[in-house]
Amino acid sequence: KENRELRRANTILRQASAYFAQAELDRRP
């Protein structure tokens, strides 16, 4: 049914988590 929307939300979540993980690594001294 709403498989496309679920996949899109999953992609956005994955990109967001990857972005925040990278930001965490960059913030380290």
TrEMBL record:
Q: What is this protein called?
A: Putative transposase
UniProt organism field? Mobilicoccus pelagius NBRC 104925
Q: What is the lineage of its organism?
A: Bacteria, Bacillati, Actinomycetota, Actinomycetes, Micrococcales
